[in-house]
Amino acid sequence: MSTSSSSHARTVLEEGQEAPSAHEFAFTPQALLRSVFREDRLFIILAVFIGIFSGLAVVCFRFIIEWVRIYALGSGVVLSPLRMLLAPSLAGLVIAVLAIHVFPQSRGSGVNQTKAALYIFNGYISFRTAIGKFIMSSLAIGAGHSLGPEDPSLQIGAGLASAIGRRMHLSRDRMRLIGPIGAAAGLAAAFNAPISAVLFVIEEVIGRWTAGILGSVVLSAVSSVVVMRWFLGSESLFRIPPVEIRRPSELVAYCVLGIIGGFASVAFATGIGALRPRFRDLPRWTQYFQPAIAGLLIGCIAWLGAPQVMGAGYEYMDEAMHGHFTWQFLAILAGLKIVATLLSFVSGTPGGMFAPTLFIGAMLGAAVGGAEHTLLPHMHFSPGTYALVGMGVLFAGFLRAPMTSVFMVLEVSGNYSIIVPVLVANTFAYLIARTLQPTSVFDELTRQDGLELPSMEEQREENILRVEDAMQSPKGWWLESDKLVEDAARLVADGEKSEVLVHLRDHGWCALTKAEIDDLMATGDGLDTLAEVAHDKHIPYLHPDHSLDMALRYVDRWPLVPVVNRANMRKLEGVISERDVLNRYRDFEGV
Amino acid sequence: MSLKGKWYALYLRREPASLALLFGLLVVFFAFVTGLSRIYFAQQQALAVRWSERGTANLKDHNYVPAVDELRAALRYSRDNQGYQLSLAEALIGLDRTSEAEAYLVNLWEEQPENGRVNLDLARVAVQEGLTRRALRYYHNAIYANWPEGDQVAQIRDARIELIQYLLRIKSTAQAQSELISLQVYLGDDTAYQKLLGDMFSQTGDYDHALSAYRLSLSAKPRDAATLAGAGNAAFQLGRYELATRYLRQNLALDSSNKNSRDQLHMADLVLRMDPFRAQIPTADRYKAVVNAFQIASKRLDACPVAASYASSTDPKKDLSQEWSDLERKVTPAGLRRDPDLANTTMDLVFTIERQANIWCGSPSDTDRALLLIARLHEGS
Predict the structure, then answer these.
(1) What are the backbone angles phi and psi of residue A315, rounded to the nearest 5°?
(2) What is the tally of helices (H) and strands (E) in chain A?
(3) Looking at the DSSP assignment, which residues form a beta bridge with residue A466?
(4) In whole angstroms, what is the distance from residue A344 CA to residue A279 CA?
(5) Cβ separation of B33 and A59 shorter than 8 Å?
(6) Whether pLDDT at A245 is above 80
(7) B148-to-B56, B115, B154 alpha-carbon distances in Å
């Protein structure tokens, strides 16, 4: 919004904050402390604390998962059949008891719970939920359930942040935002990818970009990654092989990958959306056994020759990237991982969807690349590139986070030459997934849980009404400032217009109402110029691309607001009144 | 103090105290995670070492299947350990899973392009994939690379030997020969390597160098049957039949079952007995040998009529049969005594007949083969 007068200039204060009086800026220790602990600054400091706490928690989380894996499944890569069958089953039993009796809020992936905290519970996530998520997810993932540690890390971070915010007695607005800050920290540490984490939280949880939030989210994500790297080293999740795209014609192959990935995403999301309510509708006593049966079935899949589907499976993604599997086996693994993850997730076992999504994407990508190479042997084939692009494809298609998917691949690969195939393939996958399944999996899960959270995807796709959609022609509504009051009186004489806009020479605008004009005529000032009588009646102006929501804030105070061209402020594009805005909203809702 | 002032005072007391508490908790948590990480990494290291030791032992015993699983497990706990990666790649090569091995090796090569062992393994992968140029490039890289572990000279020597054996397998004898000459420098007086050198020189057809290598080996280990056989063969191929018979006899004395040595000794004896040009032979015996060779050629001509019609080298209008008939009456001990040049003329005809018969009819008898060897010895063909 622009204003034409310096009189409109004012200090911008945060909501709920009072302007300090002059004596408060005096340089005294007390004033300094007060300045440091002002809530907006404190929030920034807390973001760093939250990042460090989340980073430490995620490091512990990874240690515990690994210890559970070693003691439950064994330290070797060849697992004994007994362990394969027993470990996930027994872990499932323990998890079911914990989830039903001790940590009932800790089921699911954690993304929706964080969103719910932001939009419904004023940022409240109980510390118990975070603890429950930590214990149950580490048990599930370590024992071989087909789930990942990222989403739980996100919720653990959000839970820690919420607890810290409560301890610091933050205002309600700050409390709402502190969960996403912790979520970004948790996710960044789990992924070792701060940019992707920040983007995901902005794209999927908060849904809006503001400097205040972004600064805190970035600070917490960076802090957590620094802590994570302090303990675990800076190596990425995968050993990235050289990324090679030799000819532009190879992009066609990536389009095919995008299309196949789009359909796979739909199948995966549809499976979760359809099976989860059915499993939840089963008698309550079955919930004690659902994770165990899911674990047993996953153990059977592993025993039958695909132990790669157990756990998060990062080491196997790494192997797929380095061409250690045939394309046929990769395709089988992608399919089995979908089945295994469906079993784990719909049975209510706590754990994340990120790692399985990346696993399926990597396997599918390398499989499609391998198959294309078999069919077209002259085509260059780099399994690592296809696997990386495949990860992005599933991320875009299944999690419906198109921007994050691109940056995630870039951040993980550290290679910008991959951006074109990723963009191409992700676009196909996203469009197919969105067309075939308009509701994203997170929104679907939220609705199944009986919550109505704002859908970030729907918000992104929403048509925004603009001033240009509601404004009317300026003809007959305005006069130059060198015109006389009687000219203005003639303009409003027909009774249709109650206001006249006056264009001042210094690019500003002012308005005269019919009553003011009539008064001036009555006092005999009809021969005065409009500049003389209206110079102190400045009004703001809008541009055609401003949203109608913004216009609504002004038409309430100023009955007629000029709409001017951005490049030429003297050019009036239209005028807008409260009636125009309301009429446009009414028509839009009618459509 | 006003209400607002009291609120600020409370706020100031609360916020710093809470932050101090948070900081304290942070320090405690950090210390806790530090302790936990020490335990974690110690365990990871121990597991890595345990699995790698098992894997390396199996790799040495050529038990590749368990070696692969164990080395994979080791890498799970020490993902960037290049030694484990290299061992795993070698185990995979052992299982002919070259593409998997190559994936590890290419990564290693990108980090250490100068590592000899990595280059050698990549060369082996290329050999298994039939990529000759790539194999040669990696072999040469390996030979001129660094070998950070173990005896560098010995490892370079072994890499070069492997390269030469590969060159011999793909019949690239000229390249193999030049590599062999370079290899000589690294071998010293080691009898086993000198014997190997001799064998490889023999395979390239460079019997001169082969004989030298065998002799060097025999000087330190004179009763090695294989070396004696090799030396006998090299001497035989060089036409040094007296030397050959000496080595071959010694070899047969140690290993009487060596059929090749026996055949070569028999042939060498025949050559020595039938050769009319050998040094310090009585004239009568020389003429007798010429007459004998002429008779053998006659039989060969009868058995191979195609060769008989071959044009004579001295008179193109005549064929070999006619030329033989022209000489038949002259080639007697007396005739040869009268015309000493006749011996050379006769032997020229004999050699021509044997060569042509060998070309057209093949499968010569031992005596025919002996005459061919004599021809090669004295005519250089």
Answers:
(1) -65, -30
(2) 25, 6
(3) A547
(4) 11
(5) yes
(6) no
(7) 18, 7, 12
Listed in sequence order, the DSSP H helices in A144-210 are 150-167, 172-191, 194-200
Please report, as a single letter, which amino acid is at residue A466.
R
Tell me the chain A residues in contact with residue B103 when contact means C-beta distances shorter than 8 Å: 241, 322-324
The answer to whether the beta carbons of residues A220 and A54 sit under 8 Å apart is: yes
Q: A140: part of which helix (H) or strand (E)? A: helix A127-143
pLDDT tens track of chain B, all 381 residues?
A: 565 566 555 555 567 788 888 899 999 999 999 999 999 999 999 999 999 999 999 999 999 999 999 999 999 999 888 889 989 999 998 998 887 888 788 888 888 888 898 999 999 989 988 889 999 999 999 999 888 888 888 889 889 999 999 999 999 889 998 889 888 877 877 888 889 999 999 999 999 999 999 998 998 888 889 999 999 999 998 888 889 999 999 999 998 888 999 998 998 988 888 888 887 788 888 888 888 888 888 888 788 777 767 766 666 667 777 777 777 778 788 888 888 788 888 888 888 888 888 887 877 788 888 888 888 887 754
For A349-396, the DSSP string reads: ---BSHHHHHHHHHHHHHHHHHHHHHHSTTS---HHHHHHHHHHHHHH
List residues bridging with A542 in a β-sheet: A563
CB atoms within 10 A of CB A88: 36
* Fold (CATH) for A248-460: Clc chloride channel (1.10.3080)
pLDDT value of position A286:
92
Give A204-273 as a 3 state SS string: HHHCCCCHHHHHHHHHHHHHHHHHHHHHHCCCCCCCCCCCCCCCCCHHHHHHHHHHHHHHHHHHHHHHHH
Phi/psi at A561 (nearest 5 deg)?
Answer: -120, 130
Give the class (CATH, top level) of A467-589: alpha beta
Q: How far is A75 from chain B (nearest CA, A)?
A: 7
A57-83 confidence digits (pLDDT tens)? 999 999 999 999 999 999 988 889 999
Q: How far apart (Å, rounded) are the C-alpha atoms in residues B107 and A481?
A: 76
pLDDT in tens, A402-440: 888 898 888 887 778 788 899 999 999 999 999 999 888
Q: List the domain boundaries for chain B.
A: 205-274, 283-377
A324 to B103: CB separation less than 8 angstroms, yes or no: yes
List every span in chain A annotated with CATH 1.10.3080.10. 13-21+33-232, 248-460
pLDDT attached to residue A588: 66
Q: C-alpha distances in angstroms, A373 versus A253, A329, B97?
A: 10, 15, 19
Six-digit token pair at B209?
A: 């160098």
The amino acid present at B245, given as its one-letter code, is T
- Are B12 and A242 in contact (CB < 8 Å)? no
ipTM: 0.77
DSSP-assigned letter for residue B266: H
Mutate to test the interface with B, among A34, A37, A70 (most CBs of B within 10 A): A37
Element (H, E) at A541: none
List the single residue in A with minimal CA-CA distance to B97: A324
Chain B nearest CA to A120, separation (Å): 26
Assign a CATH topology to domain A13-21+33-232. Answer: Clc chloride channel (1.10.3080)
The architecture that CATH gives domain B205-274 is Alpha Horseshoe (1.25)
* Backbone φ, ψ for residue A528 (5° rounding): -70, 150
Interface of B with A in 34-63 (CB under 8 A): 34, 36-37, 40, 43-44, 47, 51
pLDDT of residue A27: 60
Is A108 strand, coil or helix?
coil
A158, A186 Cβ separation under 8 angstroms: yes
CATH 3.10.580.10 domain residues, chain A: 467-589
B8 touches chain A (CB under 8 A): yes
| pTM to 2 decimal places | 0.72
